[in-house]
Design a protein that fits this description.
Blueprint: H1 3-20, H2 28-40, H3 47-56, H4 61-90
Helix pairs in contact: 2-3
């Protein structure tokens, strides 16, 4: 990702969160905008989960991204450690 795109997305995240801070429930339009933003960042695998997280965290997309990245990292680490166990066991 280029630094311009990252800066733009960061600004867009701040604007979306600022718009939503004082409301409790996401409108369908806001939800769709945030889902589209998640897609543009590569989080397109599970829209049901993305929507659930956005609703749970009141549209706080930065928190949702943090959770998605952490889960993704855990999956990668688990796959790595499992593959290393298979190498050790097979030797």
């Amino acid at each position: 990702m280029t630094s311009i795109k990252v800066a733009y997305q960061s600004t867009e995240l701040q604007e979306l969160n600022a718009q939503h801070q004082h409301r409790e429930e996401l409108s369908q339009e806001e939800l769709k905008e945030k889902i589209n933003l998640l897609h543009s960042m590569g989080f397109w695998e599970d829209d049901v989960k993305n929507e659930e997280l956005l609703k749970r965290y009141n549209g706080n997309i930065e928190r949702v991204i943090e959770i998605l990245i952490r889960e993704q990292t855990e999956r990668v680490n688990n796959n790595f450690y499992n593959s290393m166990e298979n190498v050790v066991v097979s030797q």
